[in-house]
Write a structure and sequence with these properties.
Strand content: 15-25%
Number of strands: 12
Structural class: alpha/beta
Radius of gyration: 23 Å
Oligomer: single chain
Distance between the termini: 42 Å
CATH class of the largest domain: Alpha Beta
Order of helices and strands: HHHEEHEHEHEEHHEHEHEHEEHE
Number of helices: 12
Largest sheet: 10 strands, mixed
């Protein structure tokens, strides 16, 4: 039995697929299968039922908590070794907060600490949750509240709250008119866009999809371009378009019969003792300060 076999076993359980597990671990499916066969030989029987759906056998379900205990111990030891090197920080942020929040904080931090080795990653919530579970990250900005059962003990360092603006181009906003109702907006708007930055898409946005003449779910950069060109409307996070709203390049339609929609996120520490490291604590301070400047700091839990 070796650690690669245990990692493969845990990955298959989490993904429910040998193929997906192989892709996550960046190995071939044949390698995954070979590791599991070797592990099954060691434990004395099948760990999975093979077929259209991969499921744990009774032996596999019994073995799972022990395998995860070994993996957790290994991850803790790896984290302890990394923390010895006080000049390395791993930080991850939701993509939607890279430009307005994370990047300015990181730039300020690196100006003061030019020799620090920084691993700075971006992703959707589920990507970052995966990295936190694997103890790859010292500090992260993720969606909140946390619904991931693998991260039950996670506590926020700071809570962030951003207003979601129903944005349109100036020309389309003029055609819709001032103080519009949703009926007026959807009578004029050609297309409604939604984005991938919600853990669970709010009911209000789901209902707008049904009212729209046409709707799509798109990446932020593509959606923003469509909105700027008057081809669509959609909710953009206010912190990322403050300059566009101020310059008049984009307009907040602010329908009079719709409540404000908020997107919540949180700054979290990757391990319970991460903030005991001075450099990690300083980066966290800079992120919280930047959030306060942007007006998105909802609560400081430090």
């Amino acid at each position: 039995m070796d650690i690669d076999q245990l990692r493969s076993f845990d990955r298959i359980v989490r993904d429910g697929s040998f193929t997906k597990a192989a892709a996550r671990l960046n190995v071939t499916q044949a390698t995954i299968s070979m590791r599991i066969r070797a592990l099954e030989t060691h434990v004395g029987g099948a760990l999975f039922t093979r077929g259209r759906k991969v499921e744990l056998t009774e032996r596999g379900a019994t073995f799972l908590p022990y395998a995860r205990r070994v993996l957790a111990t290994l991850l803790e030891s790896e984290d302890a070794m990394r923390s010895v090197d006080r000049g390395r920080i791993a930080f991850a942020s939701l993509r939607s907060l890279i430009e307005p929040l994370a990047t300015p904080a990181v730039v300020d931090f690196m100006r003061v600490h030019p020799r620090v080795e920084l691993q700075f990653e971006e992703g959707r919530h589920r990507d970052i949750a995966e990295w936190l579970h694997d103890r790859r990250i010292d500090l992260a900005i993720i969606g909140w509240p946390n619904f991931d059962p693998l991260l039950e003990a996670l506590e926020p360092v700071a809570l962030l709250r951003e207003k979601a603006v129903l944005a349109a181009s100036p020309a389309l906003a003029r055609e819709i008119g001032p103080q519009p109702t949703l009926d007026r907006i959807f009578a004029v708007a050609p297309h409604f866009l939604s984005f991938f930055w919600w853990q669970v898409t709010p009911d209000a946005i789901q209902s707008l999809r049904h009212r729209a003449r046409a709707s799509s779910q798109v990446l932020f950069s593509s959606g923003r371009a469509l909105i700027e060109h008057g081809a669509a409307i959609g909710h953009l996070l206010e912190a990322s378009i403050t300059g566009d709203l101020a310059s008049g390049r984009l307009v907040d339609l602010a329908p009079i019969d719709m409540p404000v929609i908020w997107r919540d996120s949180a700054l979290v520490a990757g391990t319970p003792d991460a903030l005991s490291r001075p450099l990690v604590a300083e980066l966290a301070d800079r992120i919280v300060a930047r959030a306060a400047t942007l007006g998105v700091l909802h609560a400081d839990r430090r």
